[in-house]
Amino acid sequence: MDLPLKGVTAHVFLPWERAQTPDTTDSYLHMVVDPRLKQIHHLGMQALFSRGETCRLAVEKLAGILSQSDHRHSGVIKRRLEALARHADIEIRSFAYQALLLDEPAADYSEGFPAFIHSGLPFLTQDCIRSIAKANLEPRRLESLRQRLHTYRQQLSWPAGALAREQFSNLLKLLMNFAQYHPESYSAIREELACWALHRQDPDLSHTAEQHIQELADWCKGRFPAQPAKGATWEEMVVFEDGLSNGEIALLRHVLFGTTMLQQSVMIIFDEPGFDLSLSRRAGCGLRASSRATSMSVTGSASTSSTAGTSTCS
User: Are residues 8 and 88 in the same domain?
Assistant: First the structure.
């Protein structure tokens, strides 16, 4: 539409109960000259008011048109897909949500997301979770989703009801699966899961997030060699300062050389899943372990294929 709506929302909602079946023909569109708009309307009516294969095909075609439309046509399509949050079939709700999430030209993914949460209906099937996880969700879209989730943590009443909790649990599972298919997103998704793990207002969701963090950690460990790097690899890059007891040095050696902690830390800090230790060694980078009154710390710098920086952990 070219003109803003005053006093009328642009969002479309399916009524929970319909007194009659709407006219799904195009007989009253004779004055509409835009053939693409006619097609969108026809498919939208089929998607909103039919069931089964007819509905699924209509949603699939709308998703295809959406990726090729300008902002006027795409706005019409997205409002129809958003309205499917109340559709009777979970497969259709799931497919519509997937189409909105993966729409590349969308400027603000958060517009359609509330409709699915507030519908009170589940909208993520296992097949949908797998499909979205395998797809390419660009960083700005992932960040938009995180911002929306942050808003819900701040504004919704917690603990959530059973249906809402199920939907958020499915979203957390989606995030975990996505990180496994797209390791470059590991750091951002680990942060998001940590936010939910600290969301003590809903103990069940907090526990679910903690479980997913552990699953991701186990998966991450599995991406590294079964035997962690030892000997002339990590050890030659670490200097143990005076003041450390033999027991402290033994503990640090176990943590630094006997686990994959360093590999994971570099991957998380520098967002570099393909870290190559040899590059850091040749660049003259290293780690320094020291003792400070009541704690031990490890400081150092690491050079990856694309970044360099310094980190400290205690």
Answer: yes
